[in-house]
Amino acid sequence: MRGAWIVPERRPLTIWARRGDGILHCVRRLKRAIAGTLGKRCVALWGGNPRGDIRLMISAEGPSHPQGYRLSIGEGGVEIHASSSAGIWNGVCTLVQVAAQTGERWPAIRIDDEPDVDVRGFMLDISRDKVPTGRELRRLIDWLSSIKINQLQLYFEHTFRYRRHRAVWQNASPMSAAEVRRLDRYCRKRNVELVPNQNSLGHMERWLKHARYAPLAEATGPWRSPFGDIRTTKATLCPTDPGSIALVKSLYGELLPQFSSRLFNVGCDEPFELGQGRSGTAVRKRGVGAVYLDYVLKLRRIVRAHGRRMMCWADMASSHPEILRRLPKDVILLEWGYEGDQDFENHCRQYARAGFEFYVCPGTSSWCSFSGRLSNALANMRNAARAAKSCGAAGYLITDWGDFGHRQYWPASVIPTLFGASVAWNSARPRERDAVAAAAVNGFDDSSEALAAGWGETGDLYLRSGVVLRNKTALFRVMQSRLDDRKALEGLTPAALRRMWMRVDVLRRSATMRSLEADELRATLRVVAHAIARALVMRAIEKGEDVRARAGRLATDMDAIIHEHRRLWHIRNWPGGYRDSESHYGILKREYDQWSRGVGGDFSRPGLRGGRSRGRAAGA
Hints:
Number of strands: 18
Helix content: 40-55%
Structural class: alpha/beta
Oligomer: single chain
Strand content: 5-15%
Low-confidence stretches: 602-612, 615-620
Number of helices: 21
């Protein structure tokens, strides 16, 4: 189409709509965006015949999909047609992007658009260890809604302020019931459904470490993980203990009334200890799948009593297919996997044949990395979107975890999240090579692209190591291992370390932008540089060299890393959980102090244990 529509100079923009459910929020969204982008005041015109500069019309014109829209820009102004307010919202989001990229001369275009997947969600881990402030969560919701994400889950283990369980959350800056209700209202006004998410079987170590709850643990002693190591942390509730059901029932009774959503994610992933402790007799008699299913069916009855529909992670159902034969079809299965070559399609077709609704759940790959695994994340997002479309997924849920202290900073997740939102909407169109440029406009508000490019290249530093690990990077493994642990250096050659060091040095010198995201980039690059220096010291120890002076320099550098980590943490997050996060760095600092005094080699530390594995972490 030729021509353009010119934003009027000497009068406010006028927006016409008919009052109705959801339309007011669309008008307000457009007014805020135009004011912020162009500095123009907007006036709403309500009812009567369509008129004004921008006309929002619920009509039969445009796509029939309830989230689809037709956006037309011409000399006569702008029209958005949709069959529902959700479609109008999506059209408004696209119009805002056009305005941000073209200024006051909007090109004549016509866009007919609708999503490949109806539910496009984002799940944020707020239990290891970051609990974002209310302001930060609202900022996140504003951004997610602007890129057409329409579901948000906040992952709870122990970070909701349960009235009768103070000991569990007292040092975690938990969310209160009132805060959740306010956030729920905020989401609804932005076309986002806030879905409750409380893990209910595995990953309950934050509960089971307390004497009051320890008797509910499955494990009574050491147990073997799927990765072959022996662990002692109690992390899974005993499914055959009636007290486990009583506990989660009480949690649901407090949590669920705060949400308007009719969905509820009960988690139940990775109950690794199952059958190795108190449920051992039942498992030997009936099988792991049957014991797990009995527990999940009890949870479902509680969830239904609250008028909700249950969602759960699908790892147990996929590894024990007999579960699918008895599991009620109203349960929504969440198929997760975080590698670039993840085969979503195989399991998704299995769920579809069995008659289940399911989501595909890729990840940002930011955790266990410091700087991210960007190329892996983009491939993971793409594969998930293709499987969602071909297999008929009901939803696409981007996951962002915080294993081992949530030490990665939020910008490491921006490019993957934006790309995931794009391919969930249209699985064929967005290209990986355009992801950084798109994030510069729609993620970082960075017209120069310098910040987005910096984060993009930092996110792919892991590729220069020459080591491919599942769910983590080689340098993260180095930072999680003892200085004298030779296995941590497997495949990590001196040449690779030099290549990484040289590139990190260039990136650090070029990161001169001024913003919070730039500060977080510089902090990330410092940690990566530290990890490289640590690996080189580990090589020196392997050769029998004296590393006392180098260990002292690492200790000094770690002090600076901790200081900046503390500062940046408190800008976006509540203080609770910070000490747990810092402790991962504190272990390294104490280790350096010992080696600098010549007494290294006997320092005891947990290694890659105690965090979330999701098929993917320690020992994988």
